[in-house]
């Protein structure tokens, strides 16, 4: 089974090692995701904030799949993968970063963080 997590960064600039950190986040979430049966055509997007310690706060569904069990599975995948590890070299004391993950079952894609901005939207299913 191939799954997809599309990662959209909701900020414009970050150190180069942050790309590796985000790849780590995606892999951990993907490894904990228990994909619901009969969900081939579904997609959901979550948004969360990472604090300096790598903990997730303010986790919400921003685009629902329309099925509660699918939406619940993506929330549990993020919760189960945390904490992700310290961002002490990337963030100042009270700084946070917002991240969006889009869950679907085709391929794995990480958005280019250099092209991302606060208004960058996660691609929606046609």
SSE blueprint:
Elements: E1 4-9, H1 17-32, E2 44-50, E3 56-63, H2 68-81, E4 97-104, E5 109-110
CATH topology name, in short, is Fusion Protein Consisting Of Minor Coat Protein, Glycine Rich Linker, Tola, And A His Tag, Chain: A, Domain 2
Classified by CATH, the class is: Alpha Beta
Give the helix tally.
Answer: 2
Helix-strand pattern: EHEEHEE
Shape, principal axes of CA atoms: elongated
> Which percent band covers the strand fraction?
15-25%
Number of domains: 1
Task: Give a written overview of the molecule.
This protein is elongated. Strand 2 and strand 3 form a beta hairpin. The C terminus is likely disordered. The chain has a five-stranded mixed β-sheet, covered by helices on one side. The chain is built from two helices and five strands; from the N terminus they run E-H-E-E-H-E-E. Helix 1 crosses helix 2. The chain starts with a strand and ends in a 16-residue tail after the last strand. It has a single domain, classed as Fusion Protein Consisting Of Minor Coat Protein, Glycine Rich Linker, Tola, And A His Tag, Chain: A, Domain 2 (2-Layer Sandwich), CATH 3.30.1150. By secondary structure, it is an alpha+beta fold.
How would you sum up this structure in a few lines?
This protein is of the alpha+beta class and 126 residues long. Helices cover 24% and strands 25% of the residues.
Structural descriptors:
Fusion Protein Consisting Of Minor Coat Protein, Glycine Rich Linker, Tola, And A His Tag, Chain: A, Domain 2; 25% strand; 5 strands; five-stranded mixed sheet; alpha+beta; 126 residues; elongated; disordered C terminus
């Amino acid at each position: 089974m191939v799954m997809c997590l599309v990662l959209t960064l909701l900020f414009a600039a970050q150190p180069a090692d942050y790309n590796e950190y985000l790849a780590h986040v995606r892999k951990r979430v993907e490894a904990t995701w228990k994909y619901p049966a009969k969900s081939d055509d579904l997609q959901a997007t979550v948004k969360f904030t990472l604090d300096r310690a790598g903990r997730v706060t303010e986790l919400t569904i921003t685009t629902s799949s329309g099925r509660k069990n699918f939406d619940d599975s993506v929330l549990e995948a993020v919760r189960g993968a945390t904490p992700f590890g310290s961002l002490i070299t990337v963030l100042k004391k009270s700084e946070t970063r917002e991240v969006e993950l889009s869950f679907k079952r085709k391929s794995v894609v990480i958005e280019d963080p250099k092209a991302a901005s606060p208004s960058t939207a996660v691609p929606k299913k046609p």
